[in-house]
Design a protein that fits this description.
The protein has a domain of 56 residues. With 88 residues, the chain is mainly β. Strands 1-4-5 form a three-stranded antiparallel beta sheet. Strands 3-2-6 form a three-stranded antiparallel beta sheet, with no helix packed on it. It starts with 16 loop residues before the first strand and ends with a strand. It has one helix and six strands. The mean pLDDT is 78.
Length: 88
């Protein structure tokens, strides 16, 4: 199959996330027992279902765009914060 520039489509991420950039290394185990490790500059990302993961800085900043304060009202409220247990 031959690809030409007009074959490309435009995509956007479809999920809202909350994130904070790490100021120190972080290693934790999530609720499913998976280990996550991040370095200074990476992002701790919380999805709307409460799950947390680490996203490398280069990837996160390439994919996500910060929302304005007015747009943040769309974030689903949650009575329970996600459980992140630091192991290092």
């Amino acid at each position: 199959m031959k690809y030409v520039p007009t074959d490309w489509n435009v995509y956007r991420t479809r999920f809202l996330v909350r994130a904070r950039q790490l100021t120190e290394p972080l290693l934790f185990v999530d609720a499913l027992g998976r280990e996550h490790q991040g370095d200074v500059g990476d992002y701790l990302v919380e999805s709307s279902d409460g799950g947390c993961r680490i996203a490398r800085q280069e990837i996160f900043e390439d994919i996500y765009v910060a929302m304005s304060p007015d747009d943040r009202a769309e974030w689903p409220s949650s009575a329970k914060l996600p459980s992140v247990t630091r192991i290092r």
